[in-house]
UniProtKB/TrEMBL annotation:
<feature type="binding site">
    <location>
        <position position="261"/>
    </location>
    <ligand>
        <name>Zn(2+)</name>
    </ligand>
</feature>
<keyword id="KW-0368">Histidine biosynthesis</keyword>
<feature type="binding site">
    <location>
        <position position="328"/>
    </location>
    <ligand>
        <name>substrate</name>
    </ligand>
</feature>
<feature type="binding site">
    <location>
        <position position="258"/>
    </location>
    <ligand>
        <name>substrate</name>
    </ligand>
</feature>
<feature type="active site" description="Proton acceptor">
    <location>
        <position position="328"/>
    </location>
</feature>
<feature type="binding site">
    <location>
        <position position="213"/>
    </location>
    <ligand>
        <name>NAD(+)</name>
    </ligand>
</feature>
<keyword id="KW-0560">Oxidoreductase</keyword>
<feature type="binding site">
    <location>
        <position position="126"/>
    </location>
    <ligand>
        <name>NAD(+)</name>
    </ligand>
</feature>
<feature type="binding site">
    <location>
        <position position="420"/>
    </location>
    <ligand>
        <name>substrate</name>
    </ligand>
</feature>
<keyword id="KW-0028">Amino-acid biosynthesis</keyword>
<feature type="binding site">
    <location>
        <position position="258"/>
    </location>
    <ligand>
        <name>Zn(2+)</name>
    </ligand>
</feature>
<comment type="function">
    <text>Catalyzes the sequential NAD-dependent oxidations of L-histidinol to L-histidinaldehyde and then to L-histidine.</text>
</comment>
<protein>
    <recommendedName>
        <fullName>Histidinol dehydrogenase</fullName>
        <ecNumber>1.1.1.23</ecNumber>
    </recommendedName>
</protein>
<dbReference type="InterPro" id="IPR022695">
    <property type="entry name" value="Histidinol_DH_monofunct"/>
</dbReference>
<feature type="binding site">
    <location>
        <position position="261"/>
    </location>
    <ligand>
        <name>substrate</name>
    </ligand>
</feature>
<keyword id="KW-0520">NAD</keyword>
<feature type="binding site">
    <location>
        <position position="415"/>
    </location>
    <ligand>
        <name>substrate</name>
    </ligand>
</feature>
Amino acid sequence: MLNRIDLRGSTTDPRGLLPRAQLDVSVAVDKIRPVVEAVREHGAAAVREATERFDGVTLGALRVPAEAIAASVEALDADVRAALTEAIARTRKVHSDQRRADVTTQVVPGGTVTERWVPVARVGLYVPGGLAMYPSTVVMNVVPAQVAGVESLVVSSPPQVDNGGLPDARVLAACALLGVDEVYAVGGAQAIAMLAYGVDECAPVDMITGPGNIWVTAAKRLLRGVVGIDAEAGPTEIAILADDTADPVHVAADLISQAEHDPLAASVLVTPSEALVEAVERELTRQVAATKHTARITEALTGPQSGAVLVDDLAAGLRVVDAYAAEHLEIQTENAREWALRVRNAGAIFVGAYSPVSLGDYCAGSNHVLPTGGCARHSSGLSVQSFLRGIHIVDYDEAALRDVAGHVVTLANVEDLPAHGEAVSVRFK
Ligand SMILES: NC(=O)c1ccc[n+]([C@@H]2O[C@H](COP(=O)([O-])OP(=O)(O)OC[C@H]3O[C@@H](n4cnc5c(N)ncnc54)[C@H](O)[C@@H]3O)[C@@H](O)[C@H]2O)c1
Ligand SMILES: N[C@H](CO)Cc1c[nH]c[nH+]1
Ligand SMILES: [Zn+2]
């Protein structure tokens, strides 16, 4: 089922040899550009037109009425409510510990620099809702934003035909449990454009976070700069670094679990063990046939973005997973914790037999909005820090400025910017 890539004996950089999707974000950007431009020019009318085209829904008001949000939480099953409440509590516990303190450095007597962490004022949180519904993603977006102290939070999520053109009822209920009351029934690239530019019915935001499919991710890439954007969190990826000690039943189940998100999802096994690959293949055939979303899982597992990569040993496997920079990396090896600590590039790492990605998707306390497409080489998953800006406050008194004035003037002259130097020396004439 999985494509085989045999890197045994290879000494070249593995980056170009690894499985990757054919439809990449840069191609999708060209396709959604007209949608984004139409929203910028025509506002809510263009949002409605795109929603009709891509979601098959004729929208009335873009904003979800408060009564609909309240009714969704009333109608929530008790077990779903309990699970969401637990997920919120664990996520809040972990994220509360991430809040950075302001730091003041006494550079010289009379001269300080303070780094003050200030939350972004208004944030748009995207919650996907195409092939699957994501109340858990409400939790993963909203909790860190709240812990950071963001004052104005907006959720946007695709309208659902079977919920009368509103977002999924469990998504609305999660918003209610977290006290979010500004929710829009808009998905896809048009939602990202609406949040970035603002339309009559929705004021623009300063920053957009949250995962989505390739169209959502492309719109985020296009609008970066118009608005702040977290990492690109597109179609899901799992890589598993495993050796002979891994249980093929677990490995197959975990590869399938993330393939379930999207036909473009990527599942990659990296191992020195040919026997493990064979055993995992047998398990994939058995488990895929028995699960619910067989068609899209099969498409994801057999696509060019998925595969089994054979390596000489775990050290070579480590180089491969670092080059791949997966959104999720599981380590199912002997001494898994030690290998995990040697990884440089991954959105999140799941250690050993009892930390599957599904735990992190819902209830580990960690965040599940994570960088994809190799962005884990330079970006982190969503956290409290994502919503904060460190502003430097420079506070020198007269003596401290006088003391360093000569150096400032020298550097200003070196850069042929004498007016910079004047702005200091004028104070001491
Ligand atoms: N990386 C992460 O942190 C993370 C977390 C959760 C989910 N995900 C990913 O989020 C994605 C969710 O995807 P989804 O489809 O279920 O929901 P989605 O909300 O991301 O996408 C649905 C929207 O796509 C738009 N759309 C559909 N077809 C289109 C087309 N041909 N052209 C332009 N726009 C189109 C529609 O307007 C629709 O509202 C999956 O890929 C999943 O793997 C990633
Ligand atoms: N695995 C997804 C991140 O790529 C998150 C998620 C939400 N629900 C289930 N899974
Ligand atoms: Zn998942």
